[in-house]
Design a protein that fits this description.
Immunoglobulin-like, 3 domains, 5-stranded mixed beta sheet, about 25% helix, endoplasmic reticulum, Swp1
Length: about 375
């Protein structure tokens, strides 16, 4: 029952076998340590190069060191730099591990824009480039121990613009042992201005990565043509604010300038000129010669007074409209006072006409 439970646990949770030290220097004897070993005689079934799948060694027994630990040593002659797959069998279970054997590398040669540069030095002057120019870098790497050529899996040129915008160009293999990049200014996303160029080289089996500042270049690009206007209704109204990665220009509204007004003295003079006819009208209506023409009956006097009051109310409404009322409010009040003026004026004039046409008493 315990054996069945162990098999079920391994099937559900996976084997506890682990490789504790997957990274080692190459070209020397390498001892791999495994923990979680359960079988009495575990075996490394095969060691393969992860790239070429070539078998380096096979059927290597593990030496038990303790209850759950086992080791095996790979001969230094077989410890070539690279990435390897180790298939380990522990009883009825097996597991694949990845191990890396590293080596130190160095630059054997570097040609930057046709100039041989020793590692660590920089270009003596800034290289000026136009859209018709190219920038070329060619490097060769070698194993620091054997001086044999090696090719890095990862090698890039980094162009750091003065505005903190970077561009990277990958170096491609060239003539089996070298790597090269020919950067066309017109076809790359390089900004106009000063760039600091750096070379970064690395690989999974390199013990040391290489980072080298090559120098500076100045890219002079013509100004970009103005963008053609977007046809109407092809993009949302907030497309620019939704897609921009920088601050938009501040929106400034141009208001209509206030109308110019005349000096206060001129305004007072014209106001007085407008008020003169009104004063003349009121004065003429109240002069003594017109009072005898008022009707003598009580009804006539009431209608006449009502007419004068409504007329003065309209004049007061005009004054309020000038000072504080708006047009719609003033028209509403005028709609109420208008019929009152018509009715009272009609009856008042009728009584005045009746008095004027009535026969006067004869005197002897």
């Amino acid at each position: 029952m315990q054996r069945v439970a162990g098999v079920l646990a391994i099937a559900l949770l996976g084997t506890a076998l682990e490789l504790t030290n997957p990274v080692h220097p190459a070209r020397e004897a390498v001892t791999f340590v495994f923990t979680g070993v359960e079988d009495a005689s575990p075996v490394v079934k095969s060691i393969q190069d992860a790239v070429t799948l070539a078998t380096v060694a096979a059927d290597i027994p593990l030496e038990r060191q303790s209850n759950n630990e086992a080791v095996f040593t790979l001969d230094g002659a077989l410890a070539i730099p690279g990435l390897y797959k180790l298939l380990v069998q522990d009883g009825k279970t097996s597991k694949v591990f990845h191990a890396t054997l590293t080596t130190s590398v160095s630059l054997s040669s570097a040609v930057v824009q046709g100039i041989n540069l020793p590692f660590g030095s920089t270009l003596s002057s800034v290289v000026n480039l136009t859209p018709r120019d190219t920038f070329s870098v060619e490097v060769e790497l070698q194993d620091a121990s054997t001086l044999t050529p090696v090719v890095a899996h990862h090698a890039v040129l980094r162009f750091a613009h003065e505005s903190s915008v970077d561009a990277t160009i990958v170096l491609e293999p060239y003539q089996a042992t070298a790597m090269r990049a020919v950067v066309s200014v017109a076809s790359r996303d390089l900004l106009s201005g000063l760039h600091t160029v750096s070379l970064v080289v690395g690989d999974i089996h390199f013990h040391n990565a290489l980072a080298w500042e090559l120098g500076q270049i100045y890219v002079e690009l013509p100004p970009a043509p103005p963008a053609s206007p977007t046809p109407l209704y092809t993009t949302p109204l907030l497309h620019t604010s939704d897609t921009t990665l920088q601050a938009l220009p501040e929106i400034t509204h141009i208001m209509r300038p206030p109308p110019t007004t005349p000096p206060p003295a001129i305004s007072i003079v014209f106001t007085a000129l407008v008020g003169v006819p009104l004063v003349a009208f009121v004065g003429g209506s109240l002069r003594a010669s017109s009072l005898p023409k008022l009707p003598s009956s009580v009804a006539g006097i009431v209608w006449s007074v009502a007419f004068l009051v409504s007329l003065l109310s309209v004049l007061a409404l005009f004054g309020l409209y000038w000072l504080q009322l708006d047009m719609f409010t003033a028209l509403g009040y005028l709609g109420v006072l208008g019929p009152v003026i018509v009715v009272t004026g009609q009856y008042a004039l009728a009584h005045v006409a009746a008095r004027t046409t009535s026969p006067r008493p004869k005197t002897d």
